[in-house]
Amino acid sequence: MKTSLVPALAVLAHWSQLSLAQDYPFTEEQKQNANRTLSVGYVVYHGYTILDVFGPLQFLADLSWPFSIELSVIAKETGAIHSRPPAHHGPDGMPMDMSHMIDAQIVATHTFVTAPPLDILIVTGGIGDLTLQEQNDTSVEEFIASRFPTTRHVLSVCSGAGFLARAGVLEGLRATATKGSWAHVTRHGKNVTWVPSARWVHDGKVWTSSGVSAGMDMMVAFLRHVYGDPVVNTSVNNVEYAPHVDPSWDPFSVVHKVPGANMSMAMKELVGPLEVYP
Amino acid sequence: MKTSLVPALAVLAHWSQLSLAQDYPFTEEQKQNANRTLSVGYVVYHGYTILDVFGPLQFLADLSWPFSIELSVIAKETGAIHSRPPAHHGPDGMPMDMSHMIDAQIVATHTFVTAPPLDILIVTGGIGDLTLQEQNDTSVEEFIASRFPTTRHVLSVCSGAGFLARAGVLEGLRATATKGSWAHVTRHGKNVTWVPSARWVHDGKVWTSSGVSAGMDMMVAFLRHVYGDPVVNTSVNNVEYAPHVDPSWDPFSVVHKVPGANMSMAMKELVGPLEVYP
What we know:
2 copies of one chain form a homodimer.
Chain A: H1 5-20, H2 28-33, E1 37-43, H3 50-63, E2 68-75, E3 79-82, E4 88-89, E5 95-96, E6 105-108, E7 110-111, E8 120-123, H4 128-134, H5 139-147, E9 153-156, H6 160-167, E10 174-175, H7 182-186, E11 193-194, E12 200-203, E13 206-209, H8 214-227, H9 229-238, H10 251-255, E14 269-271
Parallel strand pairs in A: 1-2, 1-8, 2-7, 8-9, 9-13, 10-11
Antiparallel strand pairs in A: 3-6, 4-5, 12-13
Helix pairs in contact in A: 3-8, 5-6, 8-9
């Protein structure tokens, strides 16, 4: 055990007491997860979408106070990875220059070769996937395919599901993706059941979310699955975030006119803060 | 005009056509903002909160496609600024070690001395404010006070309002802040009307939001104020984000038992996607 983890575990003991105080029915896996280190890897590339990464990361980072979570940011090469999209062609085939846009850097700590063993693999979306496809760069897909068998949970946000489909790991599964680029993503994969109206879909060890901000709702649901509700809900309320907790909530499938979308769905739905466990 | 802005303005013309097509009543200021460069500065420090920065930044970055927006990340020193909180003392006076937590770096491009003229100044929150106060480091407050007179809009997220209060720029104004650390923040300032139940407050040229994720809702409202609804709403729907559009929506003031909170407020409220302008 690293010395730096000792304070984490001391805090964890405090939170665990809080949780146990109300006899919450933690599963055996949740109890185990609370007392082990989870290795989380984010896959990024130039032209990643900012909130796809940092939205879910807010909750992971907060939970890394009471729990032991280690983060690796994984890309083709280490160093600064830019959100500003590289040159690519738009849906109409015309060259797109986004070089004037605001940029947010994230530092890749590992390459696809040096990445450590992972419990949780998160593939983020972004316009940069267009550039990679134009360049026939399949390094992301190859990394996913190679790690899928040994990773306990695989998550994608937004167009990140396209990488999973091209890697072949969605075969036989239900999945969703961004509604703003639905046709672009769902043309990949052979035997994938794409769910047109879903904030997120959980099937087997794969979690796929709809576009950008949907990654936050998926992450909240995922963390409740991994650690149980009590500590996670308290953390989410500290973020003052009211997550969409119904995975079928998806008015954006209607907004973006996704074929097969549940058009009877009300455009406004109830949401609110999660239950507090005092 | 920079060469790199030409594509932005070409795209802008397209978006403007879209907008003008439905006779949306843009204000004169909104029309001017659509055709000028806005200089935006984020103030950060070690121990900033991840989503305080990158949540609002997602919307700013998206809007930097059709509009011309220049971003400066401003701190005491340039280079990597860490979200992982430095050593500090907790509310009970006990030393807090968070060195085991997940870290997200943001690169400061300017110092308080080298920062360019700003149209928009955004002060983010974070536990790092405790360390700065313990060290009697008032560099953030001094920067805010020096820039306030010449900045058109000043925004804070979460505990960032504490810096504004200590800088003296909230005197005579209504403001809000994180509900999770309400007492900690609102003890600052002499003649500030702190609003206990508010997702965000807009008074004069100052916008203050509640905790963490509230910064995204404030930014959506702010951008609609600056650029008008049509382009902003389309962008927000592409993020698949359903913002809270009522600034008085604040169930977290109830969750966190803020004195004076509107306890009659329903814990669950209606939210949904913004209106689309086809």
